[in-house]
Amino acid sequence: MLNLLNTTVASSNSTLPIPQARVLPSNNGIDQRFLGWNVPPEELVHIPEHWLAYPEPPDSMQLLLGLLYIGFFFMAIIGNGLVLWIFSSCKSLRTASNMFVVNLAFCDFIMMLKTPIFIYNSFQKGFALGQLGCQVFAFMGSISGIGAGMTNSFIAYDRYMTITKPFDGKLTRTKALIMIIFIWIYTIPWAVFPLTEIWGRFAPEGYLTACTFDYLTDTFDNRLFVGSIFTCSYVIPMLFIIFFYSQIVSKVFSHEKALREQAKKMNVESLRSNQQQGNQSAEVRIAKAAITICSLFVASWTPYAVVALIGAFGDQALLTPGVTMIPACTCKLVACIDPYVYAISHPKYRLELQNKLPWLAIKETAPSDAQSVSSTTTEANQAAS
């Protein structure tokens, strides 16, 4: 076993030992291994010193994360794969609005294609695939994560225009394609810059099984990069999503209020025809959709944003390996949920899925669902008048 060579690195609150040989003999006969103990010296230089001060996590934790990612992988690949297949093969689903759903599913699909790297690293207890695997993992994560965030914001814009401006806000396929091209032009530089180290860099984090952009290097250039990518990939999409969905909810609530007041003046229960007792009103349905979409984006990327800001501008001692694995899991979880929120709740999608895969026993009833959706859309569109 390697001998321990101790050096120290100063932190804001204390001085932490950084063992270079990564193994510390103990009195009970069980060596204490630090993160990076099994990393070759030529690969060790790529790991931020911050992580090297922490002991290796229990094998059970690595195994648990590996199994969790296997579940994420199959759930997301199947869900997003079905979305890509059904939406691309069914002519009735090839609408301008659904082009954004397909782009989102593609981003989530890419997000999960990188998980075998994490799974292998977890089962091998660390930085097993080295710098090359780290760069591939982080590049795919940046492309898919930022692309998904921007796609969410354009989905919010499309729904805002469709509901609040039904006559002049209809999106064409050409316009949707231009928007999708813009999304990728906007996204790619934020992955290429750190990959080529023109600005920022990719580095391992947490248990050294995942990689992302380096938020720990204490230089002005790196802090500026973290601040810029935080603003462009998190703040801007977040503002768009909140603004557009809040406008949708506001318009629908106003319309519902006007309908109730008019019904009261006419001394009738409701102005809607064929309204069944117990059905949700349009305001509740759209409000729930808006809240769900916003919550998914917040839940998936806020942990990463907080960790990055703490690493670049705050107390890095707060960022333990276990804490930084939380954002790595949340963004993968949302990539699994997205296809169900955006597509599986779509009646025409469910109907096509039932036709192509009858053994799923979806039992979608086209007429009633279509009527419900048509009623909801009509009510929402009237909010613009």
Automatic annotation (TrEMBL):
The chain crosses the membrane at residues 63-87, 99-123, 135-155, 176-193, 224-245. Pfam families: 7tm_1. GO terms for cellular component: membrane. One of its GO terms (molecular function) is photoreceptor activity. Gene3D superfamilies: Rhodopsin 7-helix transmembrane proteins. Its main location: membrane. It comes from the Eukaryota. InterPro entries: GPCR_opsins (IPR050125), GPCR_Rhodpsn (IPR000276), GPCR_Rhodpsn_7TM (IPR017452), Opsin (IPR001760), Retinal_BS (IPR027430). CDD domains: 7tmA_photoreceptors_insect (cd15079). Keywords: Chromophore, Disulfide bond, G-protein coupled receptor, Glycoprotein, Membrane, Photoreceptor protein, Receptor, Retinal protein, Sensory transduction, Transducer, Transmembrane, Transmembrane helix, Vision. It is a multi-pass membrane protein. Residues 79-342 form the G-protein coupled receptors family 1 profile domain. GO terms for biological process: phototransduction; visual perception. PROSITE patterns: G_PROTEIN_RECEP_F1_1 (PS00237), G_PROTEIN_RECEP_F1_2 (PS50262), OPSIN (PS00238). It is found in: Membrane. Belongs to the G-protein coupled receptor 1 family. This is Ultraviolet sensitive opsin 1. It comes from Anthocomus equestris.
